[in-house]
Amino acid sequence: MKQQKGRAACGAIRVCCPFMSLCLSRRMRFHRFAAASLWLCATASFAQNVSLLAGQLQVPDKDESSFAAALSYAHPAGDYAALSLTYLNEGHPLDHHRDGVSGQLWLRSMQRPRGLSFGVGVGPYYYFDTARTAAAGYRNDHGWAPMYSVQANWHFGNHWFAQVQANRVVPRGKDATTQVLVGAGFRFDGVPGNKLHLNGPSSDDTLTLSGGQTIVNSFNSERARASSVEYRRAAGPYVDWTVTWLKEGAAPATRRSGVAGQVWLIRSLSTHVELGMGAGPYLAYDLPVLAAERQRLAGLVSIVGRYHFDRRWVGQLSWNRVVTSYHHDADVLLLGVGAAF
Protein backbone atom coordinates (compact mmCIF):
# COMPACT_ATOMS: atom_id res chain seq x y z
CA MET A 1 0.00 0.00 0.00
CA LYS A 2 2.81 2.44 0.86
CA GLN A 3 4.56 1.64 -2.43
CA GLN A 4 1.33 2.31 -4.36
CA LYS A 5 0.89 5.66 -2.63
CA GLY A 6 4.48 6.53 -3.39
CA ARG A 7 4.08 5.68 -7.06
CA ALA A 8 0.88 7.74 -7.24
CA ALA A 9 2.59 10.75 -5.69
CA CYS A 10 5.56 10.46 -8.05
CA GLY A 11 3.22 10.15 -11.01
CA ALA A 12 1.35 13.26 -9.94
CA ILE A 13 4.59 15.19 -9.56
CA ARG A 14 5.63 14.15 -13.07
CA VAL A 15 2.33 15.56 -14.32
CA CYS A 16 2.93 19.01 -12.94
CA CYS A 17 6.57 19.44 -13.97
CA PRO A 18 6.01 20.14 -17.72
CA PHE A 19 3.25 22.60 -16.95
CA MET A 20 5.12 24.39 -14.20
CA SER A 21 7.76 25.29 -16.79
CA LEU A 22 4.95 26.74 -18.93
CA CYS A 23 3.72 28.89 -16.01
CA LEU A 24 7.03 30.48 -15.01
CA SER A 25 8.78 33.53 -16.45
CA ARG A 26 12.01 35.38 -15.75
CA ARG A 27 10.20 38.58 -14.97
CA MET A 28 7.65 37.09 -12.55
CA ARG A 29 8.81 35.16 -9.51
CA PHE A 30 6.42 32.24 -9.12
CA HIS A 31 8.80 29.85 -7.33
CA ARG A 32 6.45 29.60 -4.35
CA PHE A 33 3.58 28.85 -6.73
CA ALA A 34 5.58 26.03 -8.33
CA ALA A 35 6.57 24.46 -5.01
CA ALA A 36 3.02 24.64 -3.67
CA SER A 37 1.63 23.18 -6.93
CA LEU A 38 3.94 20.19 -6.69
CA TRP A 39 2.79 19.61 -3.12
CA LEU A 40 -0.85 19.83 -4.20
CA CYS A 41 -0.39 17.33 -7.01
CA ALA A 42 1.41 14.87 -4.75
CA THR A 43 -1.35 14.93 -2.11
CA ALA A 44 -4.38 15.38 -4.41
CA SER A 45 -7.60 13.48 -3.80
CA PHE A 46 -9.63 11.76 -6.49
CA ALA A 47 -12.42 14.35 -6.94
CA GLN A 48 -12.01 16.47 -10.06
CA ASN A 49 -14.18 19.40 -11.18
CA VAL A 50 -14.82 20.72 -14.70
CA SER A 51 -16.80 23.95 -15.13
CA LEU A 52 -17.92 26.16 -18.02
CA LEU A 53 -18.56 29.86 -17.33
CA ALA A 54 -19.69 32.94 -19.24
CA GLY A 55 -20.37 36.55 -18.33
CA GLN A 56 -19.21 40.14 -18.69
CA LEU A 57 -15.79 41.79 -18.83
CA GLN A 58 -14.95 45.35 -17.83
CA VAL A 59 -11.90 47.47 -18.72
CA PRO A 60 -12.12 50.00 -15.86
CA ASP A 61 -9.42 52.39 -17.15
CA LYS A 62 -11.27 52.82 -20.47
CA ASP A 63 -14.87 52.34 -19.34
CA GLU A 64 -15.33 49.52 -21.88
CA SER A 65 -17.18 46.25 -21.59
CA SER A 66 -17.41 42.98 -23.52
CA PHE A 67 -18.23 39.32 -23.04
CA ALA A 68 -16.01 36.76 -21.28
CA ALA A 69 -15.94 32.96 -21.07
CA ALA A 70 -13.85 30.31 -19.31
CA LEU A 71 -13.33 26.56 -19.22
CA SER A 72 -11.72 25.36 -15.99
CA TYR A 73 -10.38 22.11 -14.51
CA ALA A 74 -9.83 21.96 -10.73
CA HIS A 75 -8.09 19.21 -8.77
CA PRO A 76 -8.63 19.28 -4.99
CA ALA A 77 -5.85 18.52 -2.51
CA GLY A 78 -7.29 17.68 0.85
CA ASP A 79 -10.26 19.62 2.20
CA TYR A 80 -9.07 23.21 1.79
CA ALA A 81 -6.76 23.50 -1.25
CA ALA A 82 -6.85 22.92 -5.00
CA LEU A 83 -4.92 23.48 -8.23
CA SER A 84 -6.71 24.66 -11.38
CA LEU A 85 -5.96 25.06 -15.07
CA THR A 86 -8.18 27.52 -16.95
CA TYR A 87 -8.66 28.77 -20.49
CA LEU A 88 -10.00 32.34 -20.32
CA ASN A 89 -11.40 34.35 -23.24
CA GLU A 90 -11.46 38.07 -22.41
CA GLY A 91 -13.82 39.01 -25.21
CA HIS A 92 -13.48 41.86 -27.70
CA PRO A 93 -12.89 45.25 -26.08
CA LEU A 94 -12.04 48.04 -28.52
CA ASP A 95 -8.81 47.24 -30.44
CA HIS A 96 -8.03 44.12 -28.38
CA HIS A 97 -8.93 40.42 -28.57
CA ARG A 98 -7.22 38.75 -25.62
CA ASP A 99 -7.36 35.22 -24.22
CA GLY A 100 -4.99 32.89 -22.43
CA VAL A 101 -4.23 30.00 -20.11
CA SER A 102 -3.87 30.24 -16.33
CA GLY A 103 -2.71 27.97 -13.52
CA GLN A 104 -3.92 28.92 -10.03
CA LEU A 105 -3.59 27.84 -6.43
CA TRP A 106 -6.82 27.91 -4.43
CA LEU A 107 -7.71 28.09 -0.75
CA ARG A 108 -11.30 26.90 -0.31
CA SER A 109 -13.89 26.15 2.29
CA MET A 110 -14.95 22.57 2.84
CA GLN A 111 -16.44 21.07 -0.35
CA ARG A 112 -19.54 19.25 0.83
CA PRO A 113 -21.84 17.14 -1.40
CA ARG A 114 -24.64 19.68 -0.88
CA GLY A 115 -24.56 23.35 0.03
CA LEU A 116 -22.41 26.47 -0.36
CA SER A 117 -18.62 26.72 -0.67
CA PHE A 118 -16.16 29.56 -1.30
CA GLY A 119 -12.63 29.94 -2.64
CA VAL A 120 -9.87 32.44 -3.45
CA GLY A 121 -7.25 31.75 -6.12
CA VAL A 122 -4.08 33.31 -7.52
CA GLY A 123 -1.61 32.33 -10.21
CA PRO A 124 0.15 33.18 -13.49
CA TYR A 125 -1.78 33.87 -16.70
CA TYR A 126 -0.11 33.56 -20.11
CA TYR A 127 -2.07 35.69 -22.57
CA PHE A 128 -2.39 36.07 -26.34
CA ASP A 129 -3.51 39.55 -27.37
CA THR A 130 -4.51 40.53 -30.91
CA ALA A 131 -4.05 44.33 -30.83
CA ARG A 132 -5.02 46.78 -33.58
CA THR A 133 -2.21 48.90 -35.10
CA ALA A 134 -2.24 51.70 -37.67
CA ALA A 135 0.71 50.41 -39.68
CA ALA A 136 0.16 46.65 -40.06
CA GLY A 137 -3.51 46.43 -39.10
CA TYR A 138 -2.83 44.22 -36.08
CA ARG A 139 -0.13 42.49 -34.07
CA ASN A 140 -0.08 39.38 -31.84
CA ASP A 141 1.32 40.18 -28.40
CA HIS A 142 2.13 37.56 -25.76
CA GLY A 143 3.00 37.95 -22.12
CA TRP A 144 2.50 37.07 -18.47
CA ALA A 145 0.16 38.59 -15.92
CA PRO A 146 -1.05 37.68 -12.43
CA MET A 147 -4.67 36.57 -12.15
CA TYR A 148 -6.65 36.88 -8.90
CA SER A 149 -10.00 35.12 -8.43
CA VAL A 150 -12.83 34.68 -5.93
CA GLN A 151 -15.47 32.00 -6.30
CA ALA A 152 -18.74 30.77 -4.83
CA ASN A 153 -20.32 27.38 -5.58
CA TRP A 154 -23.66 25.82 -4.77
CA HIS A 155 -23.47 22.00 -4.75
CA PHE A 156 -26.74 20.23 -5.60
CA GLY A 157 -25.78 16.83 -4.19
CA ASN A 158 -25.86 15.01 -7.55
CA HIS A 159 -22.33 15.88 -8.83
CA TRP A 160 -23.57 19.12 -10.43
CA PHE A 161 -22.84 22.57 -9.00
CA ALA A 162 -23.57 26.19 -9.93
CA GLN A 163 -20.62 28.60 -9.90
CA VAL A 164 -20.10 32.36 -9.72
CA GLN A 165 -16.55 33.67 -10.17
CA ALA A 166 -14.84 37.05 -10.43
CA ASN A 167 -11.34 37.40 -11.95
CA ARG A 168 -8.91 40.30 -12.04
CA VAL A 169 -6.13 40.22 -14.67
CA VAL A 170 -3.37 42.84 -14.25
CA PRO A 171 -0.75 42.71 -17.07
CA ARG A 172 2.17 45.11 -16.91
CA GLY A 173 1.89 47.91 -19.47
CA LYS A 174 -1.52 46.73 -20.75
CA ASP A 175 -5.16 47.15 -19.81
CA ALA A 176 -6.27 45.41 -16.63
CA THR A 177 -9.63 43.64 -16.85
CA THR A 178 -12.29 42.37 -14.45
CA GLN A 179 -14.60 39.49 -15.37
CA VAL A 180 -17.76 38.35 -13.57
CA LEU A 181 -18.74 34.86 -14.73
CA VAL A 182 -21.64 32.52 -14.03
CA GLY A 183 -21.92 28.88 -15.04
CA ALA A 184 -22.14 25.25 -14.04
CA GLY A 185 -19.75 22.42 -13.29
CA PHE A 186 -19.61 18.69 -12.75
CA ARG A 187 -17.70 16.81 -10.05
CA PHE A 188 -16.07 13.50 -11.02
CA ASP A 189 -15.66 11.32 -7.89
CA GLY A 190 -13.87 8.05 -7.30
CA VAL A 191 -11.48 8.16 -10.27
CA PRO A 192 -7.77 8.36 -9.40
CA GLY A 193 -7.08 10.35 -12.57
CA ASN A 194 -4.53 8.01 -14.12
CA LYS A 195 -5.08 6.15 -17.37
CA LEU A 196 -7.67 3.64 -16.18
CA HIS A 197 -8.34 2.41 -19.71
CA LEU A 198 -4.80 1.04 -20.09
CA ASN A 199 -3.17 -2.23 -19.11
CA GLY A 200 0.02 -0.25 -18.76
CA PRO A 201 1.08 3.28 -19.73
CA SER A 202 3.45 2.07 -22.48
CA SER A 203 0.56 0.34 -24.30
CA ASP A 204 -1.13 3.64 -25.19
CA ASP A 205 0.05 4.10 -28.77
CA THR A 206 -2.65 5.94 -30.72
CA LEU A 207 -2.78 7.24 -34.27
CA THR A 208 -5.46 9.93 -34.74
CA LEU A 209 -6.73 11.54 -37.95
CA SER A 210 -8.50 14.89 -37.50
CA GLY A 211 -10.11 17.61 -39.55
CA GLY A 212 -11.46 21.03 -38.73
CA GLN A 213 -10.92 24.74 -39.17
CA THR A 214 -8.16 27.30 -38.80
CA ILE A 215 -9.05 30.81 -37.59
CA VAL A 216 -6.30 33.43 -38.00
CA ASN A 217 -5.87 35.69 -34.95
CA SER A 218 -6.59 38.94 -36.80
CA PHE A 219 -9.52 41.35 -36.72
CA ASN A 220 -10.89 39.71 -39.89
CA SER A 221 -10.60 36.15 -38.46
CA GLU A 222 -9.72 34.59 -41.81
CA ARG A 223 -10.65 30.89 -41.98
CA ALA A 224 -9.44 27.77 -43.75
CA ARG A 225 -9.84 24.01 -43.58
CA ALA A 226 -7.33 22.25 -41.35
CA SER A 227 -6.23 18.64 -40.90
CA SER A 228 -3.75 16.70 -38.79
CA VAL A 229 -2.20 13.29 -38.16
CA GLU A 230 -1.19 12.69 -34.54
CA TYR A 231 0.87 9.93 -32.93
CA ARG A 232 0.32 9.78 -29.15
CA ARG A 233 2.15 7.69 -26.56
CA ALA A 234 1.79 7.61 -22.78
CA ALA A 235 4.98 8.48 -20.90
CA GLY A 236 3.33 7.62 -17.57
CA PRO A 237 -0.08 7.38 -15.89
CA TYR A 238 -0.55 11.17 -16.13
CA VAL A 239 1.75 12.29 -18.95
CA ASP A 240 1.56 11.83 -22.74
CA TRP A 241 3.79 13.00 -25.54
CA THR A 242 2.72 13.52 -29.15
CA VAL A 243 4.21 14.12 -32.58
CA THR A 244 1.74 15.81 -34.94
CA TRP A 245 1.75 16.76 -38.59
CA LEU A 246 -0.52 19.79 -38.85
CA LYS A 247 -1.87 21.45 -42.00
CA GLU A 248 -3.49 24.80 -41.24
CA GLY A 249 -4.95 25.28 -44.71
CA ALA A 250 -4.88 28.18 -47.15
CA ALA A 251 -6.24 31.18 -45.25
CA PRO A 252 -5.58 34.58 -46.90
CA ALA A 253 -3.12 35.58 -44.18
CA THR A 254 -1.24 32.30 -43.93
CA ARG A 255 -0.70 28.99 -45.67
CA ARG A 256 1.16 26.96 -43.12
CA SER A 257 1.91 23.36 -42.23
CA GLY A 258 4.53 21.58 -40.18
CA VAL A 259 5.44 19.15 -37.41
CA ALA A 260 4.83 19.73 -33.68
CA GLY A 261 6.07 17.87 -30.62
CA GLN A 262 4.15 18.31 -27.34
CA VAL A 263 4.18 17.11 -23.75
CA TRP A 264 0.75 16.66 -22.19
CA LEU A 265 -0.82 16.64 -18.75
CA ILE A 266 -3.63 14.06 -19.07
CA ARG A 267 -6.25 13.32 -16.42
CA SER A 268 -8.94 10.64 -16.62
CA LEU A 269 -12.30 12.02 -15.50
CA SER A 270 -13.97 8.62 -15.87
CA THR A 271 -13.15 5.25 -17.42
CA HIS A 272 -14.03 6.74 -20.82
CA VAL A 273 -13.29 10.48 -20.64
CA GLU A 274 -9.92 12.23 -20.55
CA LEU A 275 -9.06 15.91 -20.41
CA GLY A 276 -5.57 17.15 -21.30
CA MET A 277 -3.41 20.20 -21.87
CA GLY A 278 -0.23 20.20 -23.95
CA ALA A 279 2.54 22.51 -25.13
CA GLY A 280 5.61 22.25 -27.32
CA PRO A 281 7.54 23.50 -30.38
CA TYR A 282 6.01 23.65 -33.86
CA LEU A 283 8.33 23.66 -36.87
CA ALA A 284 6.15 25.35 -39.50
CA TYR A 285 6.52 26.12 -43.19
CA ASP A 286 4.71 29.35 -44.16
CA LEU A 287 4.68 30.26 -47.86
CA PRO A 288 3.11 33.76 -48.08
CA VAL A 289 4.94 35.19 -45.05
CA LEU A 290 8.41 34.00 -45.98
CA ALA A 291 9.71 35.15 -49.32
CA ALA A 292 12.66 32.76 -49.03
CA GLU A 293 10.27 29.91 -48.16
CA ARG A 294 12.23 28.99 -45.06
CA GLN A 295 11.04 27.09 -42.04
CA ARG A 296 9.88 28.91 -38.92
CA LEU A 297 9.84 27.72 -35.33
CA ALA A 298 6.62 28.52 -33.48
CA GLY A 299 4.88 27.18 -30.39
CA LEU A 300 1.73 25.10 -30.05
CA VAL A 301 -0.50 25.21 -26.94
CA SER A 302 -3.46 22.80 -26.89
CA ILE A 303 -6.44 21.58 -24.88
CA VAL A 304 -7.95 18.19 -25.71
CA GLY A 305 -10.96 16.12 -24.72
CA ARG A 306 -10.79 12.39 -25.51
CA TYR A 307 -13.56 9.78 -25.32
CA HIS A 308 -12.60 6.09 -25.35
CA PHE A 309 -15.38 4.13 -27.05
CA ASP A 310 -13.53 0.91 -26.19
CA ARG A 311 -9.92 -0.19 -25.71
CA ARG A 312 -9.14 0.42 -29.39
CA TRP A 313 -11.14 3.42 -30.66
CA VAL A 314 -11.07 6.97 -29.32
CA GLY A 315 -12.75 10.22 -30.34
CA GLN A 316 -10.83 13.46 -29.91
CA LEU A 317 -11.76 17.17 -29.86
CA SER A 318 -8.97 19.73 -29.55
CA TRP A 319 -8.34 23.46 -29.51
CA ASN A 320 -4.82 24.43 -30.63
CA ARG A 321 -3.19 27.86 -30.50
CA VAL A 322 -0.25 28.48 -32.84
CA VAL A 323 2.04 31.02 -31.12
CA THR A 324 4.37 32.91 -33.48
CA SER A 325 7.00 35.63 -33.18
CA TYR A 326 5.96 37.22 -36.50
CA HIS A 327 2.30 38.14 -35.76
CA HIS A 328 0.59 35.22 -37.48
CA ASP A 329 -1.01 33.40 -34.55
CA ALA A 330 -3.96 31.12 -35.28
CA ASP A 331 -6.55 28.90 -33.60
CA VAL A 332 -6.94 25.39 -35.02
CA LEU A 333 -10.09 23.49 -34.00
CA LEU A 334 -9.94 19.76 -34.77
CA LEU A 335 -12.26 16.76 -34.43
CA GLY A 336 -10.92 13.31 -35.08
CA VAL A 337 -10.93 9.55 -34.55
CA GLY A 338 -7.97 7.51 -33.37
CA ALA A 339 -7.02 3.85 -33.16
CA ALA A 340 -4.85 2.39 -30.38
CA PHE A 341 -2.34 -0.32 -31.20
UniProtKB/TrEMBL annotation:
Keywords of this entry: Signal
Residues in the signal sequence: 1-47
Location(s) in or outside the cell: Cell outer membrane
Superkingdom of origin organism: Bacteria
Name recorded for this polypeptide: Lipid A deacylase LpxR family protein
Organism: Janthinobacterium fluminis
